[in-house]
Design goal:
Layout: H1 2-50, H2 56-60, H3 73-104, H4 109-121, H5 126-140, H6 147-171, H7 175-183, H8 188-215, H9 220-225, H10 258-266, H11 271-305
Helix pairs in contact: 1-11, 3-6, 3-8, 3-10, 4-6, 5-6, 6-8, 7-8, 8-11, 10-11
Transmembrane segments: 21-48, 73-101, 121-141, 147-165, 196-213, 219-236, 248-266, 278-298
Organism: Nitrosomonas ureae
Family: Belongs to the binding-protein-dependent transport system permease family. CysTW subfamily.
Length: 308
């Protein structure tokens, strides 16, 4: 009799858990569909308003007070240069920091404090990074309101993301890979460079591209640094005709970026400027989706080629 009651109790518990699993699954699907439908509705509205405005002239024209002749040339060039500085500054530093914290740093109180702070910094509002960059790069180091200051500000923003992604990717490698390398006489650096990094490259690249995709749409740090809302010229070219054929004058040039240009157009009352903002937003969304799509593709290709 007791065993019969116990069996009935077990069945009741299993049935209750299955019911809660079903409720959670339905709730998750509803939440996912709300998010997807919201994005689709906003993107469709942006597509309807902005697609007719897209043309070759729109990409090759400077901003103008006349909406029909205004373009995003200075905005997308500025965005490209700022993202170049961001990638050059954040990617090597983030990967190196992640490798050190995961493989080389001693397990003590100081390391734990650093790890907790790095994780928490990934959730700090972006305006805080803008204020930090304003005080450090603009005023203390004298970079001014330049592409260099903006790129370094966004590098600070995505640096915790790159570090965390690098650590998680390395941590996912089975311990047997390390043990096999050490058993064959490999040094610490040989194990990291020849085994851990190649196997974790897919996860690291995914984190890098997702971080850059976040940075490309940030507005608050760029406004804090002092991005201009109206620029009718381009920064100096990075390439020169005379030796050494490379110029870094563009690093100190004033700039604008796509989100700032959109903000400028949205703040104007004319409906034609609203259409320009929708077109610029459409370009920015496509760039972000392309970067995330590239991350998914690279992760798939690299994981496919890995042989454990």
């Amino acid at each position: 009799m007791r065993s019969g009651k116990s069996l009935e109790e077990i069945r009741r518990i299993i049935s209750l858990h299955k019911r809660w699993d079903l409720i959670f699954m339905i709730t998750g699907i509803i939440a996912l569909m709300i998010a997807i439908m919201t994005f689709v509705a906003l993107f469709a509205h942006m597509l309807i308003d902005g697609l007719p405005r897209l043309s070759w002239e729109f990409f090759t024209s400077f901003p103008s007070r006349r909406p029909e002749s205004a373009g995003i040339l200075s905005a997308w060039v500025g965005t490209t240069l700022v993202m170049l500085v961001t990638a050059v500054a954040a990617v090597p530093l983030g990967i190196g920091s992640g490798i050190y914290l995961e493989e080389y740093a001693p397990r003590n109180l100081l390391t734990e404090i650093i790890e907790i702070n790095v994780t928490n910094l990934a959730g700090v509002p972006s305006i805080i990074y803008g204020l930090l960059a304003l005080g450090l790069f603009v005023y203390q180091l004298g970079f001014g309101q330049s592409i260099l200051a903006a790129g370094l500000a966004l590098a600070l923003l995505i640096l915790p993301v790159v570090i965390v992604a690098t650590r998680e990717a390395i941590r996912s490698i089975p311990i047997t890979i390390r043990e096999g390398a050490y058993a064959l006489g490999a040094t610490k650096w040989q194990t990291v460079s020849d085994h851990l990094l190649p196997y974790s490259a897919a996860g690291i690249l995914t984190g890098i591209i997702i971080g850059l995709a976040r940075a490309i749409g940030e507005t608050a740090p760029i406004i804090t640094i002092g991005a201009l809302t109206f620029i009718a010229f381009l920064p100096p070219s990075p390439v020169k005709n005379e030796f050494p054929f490379i110029s870094f004058e563009w690093l100190t040039a004033p700039f604008t970026v796509m989100p700032i240009q959109m903000f400028n157009w949205v703040s104007r009352p004319e409906e034609a400027f609203q259409l320009n903002a929708a077109a610029a937003g459409l370009v920015l969304v496509i760039m972000t989706l392309a970067m995330n799509g590239l991350a998914i593709y690279l992760r798939y290709r690299m994981r496919k080629n890995i042989k454990w």
